[in-house]
Specification:
Strand content: under 5%
Shape: globular
Largest sheet: none
Helix content: over 70%
Number of strands: 0
Radius of gyration: 24 Å
Number of domains: 1
Oligomer: single chain
């Protein structure tokens, strides 16, 4: 009897130790995921600064050639009026649907049209691309795309979170760097989110990043054309971009924990 009690006591102690270790691992995992999300946001900010520096260097070396091209292309767009802007929207959206990286395309809009006009055009283009890719994934290529994420717990967790509050989660995911933009467009088509909340959430969540990268492109144009007062607009604009990156980091951390909690619930 005494031996059995000792054995049971050891087993209970082992179970408690195991549970404590699991809790510690979960806590470390949450910290790691949150840290990774913030790191991703900081990398995005560093990438933005790198692109601005690249534009500045290119503008200094090839100033006359680039300035001539900008003048000619802007004249071409203006010559067609609204149709010229529509053409840019269609080309941008088409390349985005084909999963061409969005950052160079977005910055090119700032380079060509300036901060405000460029942000409006890219916002329309990106939202159109997101809608088209979503519909393709949901109605035309669902089975093929589903094979890429079949059995992925994180995707299933995100799907569950989206099912509970689609607009909120899509908006936060668009703010965070957790899902690549082009890939995300297709993956959302596999989830339970409805089309309208998805489109509105995508548009709203993409705005801060769109503004930042378009403004970086506009700043490059300002350097090329010796118009330092154009583009980022001085310290106030830099402050706006810094606040945007901060909110992006917060959103990334929140969404990471949301997905992790959903994964835990699925395991239980």
């Amino acid at each position: 009897m005494k031996g059995r009690r000792l054995k049971r006591g050891r087993e209970k102690k082992t179970e408690r130790v195991g549970e404590e270790e699991e809790e510690e691992e979960d806590a470390e995992g949450e910290e790691g995921d949150g840290g990774a999300a913030i790191t991703g946001t900081l990398l995005a900010g560093a990438l933005l600064v790198g692109f601005v520096g690249g534009f500045g260097a290119a503008g200094y070396v090839y100033k006359d050639q680039i300035n001539t091209f900008l003048t000619q292309f802007s004249g071409f767009i203006d010559g067609y009026g609204p149709a010229g802007y529509a053409l840019f929207v269609l080309v941008y959206a088409g390349l985005e649907v084909l999963a061409i990286p969005a950052i160079p395309l977005t910055m090119s809009a700032g380079l060509l049209f300036g901060s405000i006009t460029g942000t409006i055009i890219v916002s329309i283009s990106g939202t159109l691309a997101a809608a088209v890719a979503f519909l393709i994934a949901r109605y035309f290529a669902r089975e093929r795309i589903l094979k890429l994420v079949e059995g992925n717990k994180k995707f299933l967790a995100i799907d569950k979170a989206i099912g509970e509050n689609g607009f909120k989660v899509v908006t936060l995911l668009r703010l965070s760097p957790l899902l690549p933009f082009s890939l995300g467009n297709y993956l959302y088509g596999l989830t339970s989110v409805k089309f309208l909340p998805y489109v509105l959430g995508s548009w709203l969540g993409m705005l801060p990043g769109t503004w930042a990268y378009v403004s970086a492109g506009a700043f490059g144009r300002a350097i090329i054309q010796d118009e330092s007062e154009i583009g980022l607009g001085g310290n106030s604009q830099l402050l706006t971009l810094g606040i945007g990156l901060l909110f992006t980091a917060i959103a990334a951390t929140y969404v990471t924990r949301l997905a992790k909690d959903a994964v835990k619930e699925m395991d239980e």
